[in-house]
Every structure is written in C-alpha cells, then in structure tokens.
Design brief:
about 450 residues; alpha/beta; pyruvate-formate lyase- activating enzyme; four-stranded antiparallel beta sheet; globular
C-alpha cells in the first residue's frame, strides 16, 4: 500500500500496462507467461482434488462498441468468425480440463464479454455443450451471465434459463439519457423495466446491474436521479464501479473528451448518492461497492463471514480458483493471476498449436499472497484481527490506511471507517476487469 496515495502497491494492482500494441495485460509487475511457469501452478491445483473451481468464459463479441467499453471486445457480425471462435474455445476448454486433471467439478461458471448474448441461441448452446463435455456441471453449479439489455428478448431469457443460467447481470452503465448519448449506449428505462420484469417472470435466481461513476456528462444531480430510477427497477443487487478513460489501452476512448468527465469530488458525491439511495431502499452495503437485497447471496455471505473476492468480483466462497478460457480471459490460481492473449489472431494461433493462450501473469510470493488475503478480508468483512500479522506487516499494509483515516485500529483488530468505505472504491475498484485484479 502506498502511504502517500492510498493505492495498491504495484505488485497487487494493474497500473501502467505492459503490453504489445494490441494486447492489454495485468500491469507493471506482469511477466510474459512461459509453459513451465503455468504448468507449475496447474500441478499444484491438480494435486488438490478438493479445490473449488470456477470457469470464467469470455465471449468477446459485440454488435458495436460504446465509448465506456473497457473490455477485451470484438465487433463482429459474421457467423463464420463466431463459429471459428467457438470451435477454438472448445480446444481451450479441453486443454484447461487436461491441465487440472480431467473432468473436474465446477462450483461456478461465469460468462463475460463483450456481450455474451450477442451470440445466437445455437452458438450459446454449442458453448454450453462444450463445457459439459470437459467439466462436471451439477445442480449445485451456479451459472451467471452478463447481458447487453438491448440484445435481450423474452425468448432469449427463457432459453438461457433452460440452459441452466441462474444469475444475470445487466450491463447498464447509466440510465440517464444524456449520459447514454455521450457514450453511445442507448437503452431506455422502459426497456430495462421490460427486461427485468420478464427475467423475474422466468424465475432467475438473481438479477443485478452495474452503474459506472465518472462517465462523460454525469453530474451529481443526474446521478441522484439515476439512483432513484435504478431503485425503482428493484434489481437484486447493483455494483457501482468508477470509470477511467484510458485511450492508450482502449484507443476508441480517445473520443471521450476529458473536460466532460466528472471531477473526483463529483465522483465522491455520486457514490454517496448511490450509497444513501440504496440504503434507504433497504439494500445492504456489501464489500466496498455492491448494494444487495438482504436475502441475496452476497449479503448473506457477508453476514456469515464467507464473502470472497477474486477476478470475478465478489463471490460467496472465500477460496475459489478461477480458470479463464477465451480471448483475454482472466484466471486466478493460488499465487498466480494471469490473462489470456487479447489479440484475436494470436489467440487463434496459440490454440491451433495446442497451447494454452496465457499471455501475461502476476506471480505472488508468500508475502504477497498473505497481503492479498489480508486486504481482501478487510474489504469483504470490513474488519480483520491483527494477531496473525507481524509488526512489519501491520506497518506496511494497514497503518498507512489508519494514517489516512480509512481504517481505525482497535484493541484486537482493524476496522474500515465510514470514510474508508466511501473513498476506497475510487482507489481499489475499476470498471475494467483488467484493472481490478486486486
């Protein structure tokens, strides 16, 4: 932890990118992946037969790219291009399954994008078939998918439910018409109401939304109105993430004019509107930046102490190894976070050669693993006992937070302050998965 800025140390967070001209990667501590490096971590995971596994499936295709997009995404409309991707995705699923020693059971499967629901029903069914071929999916496996609400229909939602998807996350960004116009992502409040109403009628287990702070055209006043509108939609949970303009990584964002972006003071005021609006509506504040209904699994996990945090975000399991497949997908194994190749042609080449597509990784020693565990525990539980830490670890990891007023030290533990919970989301969260690997 940097005691001056309050930001994560470079070994824990992506700051400047180490990347080729077309490949985003994990940050200035990332190294290019070698087969030997990856194999050593998979060997450990293969030996742990009781390890809980999650599959992170990246479906990068989108009908168009809005200015807020900070994902590894491909604008594609030709069926043959998508078919080729799905064919190679099966090969990568086979390689990953072999790396963890056969048809292992999965606690979770998450589909991210891009816009996963840009794929046809046949294409999605084929992907599900491939996963079932190489991994064990049971009734206990939780399956979630990110959705572009503009691409959603009653027939599609019924189809996804039939495939076993139980949790949906609508990629909304903002409900304010002016902000939507600024970023080129238009979906009316009426459209969202219809999608959510249909989803509830189909009986999905949980339906969430995202809300980005820091988009062009946003103001504290527009945020207050957006919060009221989102509360009226009654999602089961909402994740609030700060947007950062990074035209060097996502070149299309050069069209976002910096002078139209809210200041940090405005962002803090916006987050306060989100927190107060959802608190007044009966939602619980989970971790740093999620607001969930009391019966939602993340709220329950926080109350029972089982809430975890990994490259997928908040999950109800504390120890979950994440296996990423697909273009630019993120994986997290004990001691290793890595990203797949994010250039589509290079990804295809690696899969054709029978190789895992891992491109760059952040490798953690025992001290960094413990630091990540400590700080994630603080985020998930808002407190942690200090007995297990050395004086040097407390001084390096926690006392800078105390000095800044984000954490208070009590007799036997450290606790997040109200200021910490309000300010740290702007430092420790990010709308881009690449930049929130912890």
């Amino acid at each position: 932890m940097n005691s001056t800025t309050g930001a994560w140390s470079s070994s824990l967070v992506a700051k400047s990118l180490v990347r080729s001209s077309e490949t985003a990667s994990l940050g200035d501590q990332a190294v290019r992946v070698s087969a030997d490096l990856i194999q050593s971590f998979f060997t450990q995971l293969r030996a742990d037969k009781d390890a809980e596994l999650a599959l992170n499936v990246h479906l990068p295709f989108c009908p168009s790219r809005c200015l807020s997009c900070d994902r590894v995404a491909v604008v594609a409309h030709r069926d043959e291009e998508i078919d080729r991707y799905i064919s190679h995705l099966e090969k990568e699923l086979m390689l990953i399954a072999e790396a963890v020693d056969g048809q292992r059971g999965l606690a979770r499967v998450h589909f991210g994008g891009g816009s996963p629901n840009h794929l046809s029903e046949l294409a999605l069914a084929t992907v599900f078939s491939h996963i079932h071929r190489h991994f064990s999916i049971t009734d206990a496996t939780r399956i979630s998918m990110e959705l572009n609400p503009r691409r959603t229909s009653r027939a599609q939602l019924n189809f996804l439910k039939g495939l076993g998807v139980g949790q949906l996350k609508l990629e909304v960004r903002d409900v304010d018409a002016k902000v939507q116009q600024e970023i080129g992502r238009i979906h009316s409040l009426e459209l969202l109401e219809d999608v959510i109403s249909i989803a509830h009628g189909v009986n999905f287990e949980s339906l969430g939304m995202d809300y980005l702070i820091g988009l062009p055209g946003q103001t504290a006043e527009s945020c207050e109105q957006s919060v009221a509108a989102m509360v009226s939609l009654s999602p089961d949970w909402l994740v609030c993430l700060p947007f950062h303009r990074r035209e060097s990584v996502f070149p299309h964002q050069i069209a976002v004019e910096a002078q139209h972006l809210p200041s940090l003071a405005d962002r803090l005021a916006m987050f306060n509107h989100v927190q107060m609006g959802f608190d007044d509506a009966g939602y619980e504040w989970v971790g740093l930046n999620v607001f969930a209904k009391p019966e939602q699994e993340l709220s329950v996990a926080q109350r029972t102490g089982s809430l975890g945090l990994n490259v997928l975000g908040y999950v109800p399991e504390q120890s979950l190894s994440v296996l990423g497949v697909g273009l630019g997908a993120l994986s997290e194994l004990p001691g290793l976070i890595y990203q797949n190749e994010a250039n589509l042609a290079s990804w295809h080449t690696l899969i054709d050669a029978g190789l895992l597509s891992a491109h760059s990784a952040v490798v953690s020693d025992e001290s960094e693993i413990l630091r990540r565990k400590v700080l994630r525990g603080l985020i998930c539980r808002q407190s942690l006992y200090s007995a297990a830490l050395s004086s040097a670890q407390e001084a390096e990891w926690l006392l800078p937070l105390v000095d800044q007023g984000f954490v208070i030290k009590e007799q036997t533990d450290y606790r997040l302050t109200e200021m910490g919970r309000s300010a740290l989301p702007h430092m420790w969260a990010d709308s881009s998965p690449i930049f929130r690997t912890l």
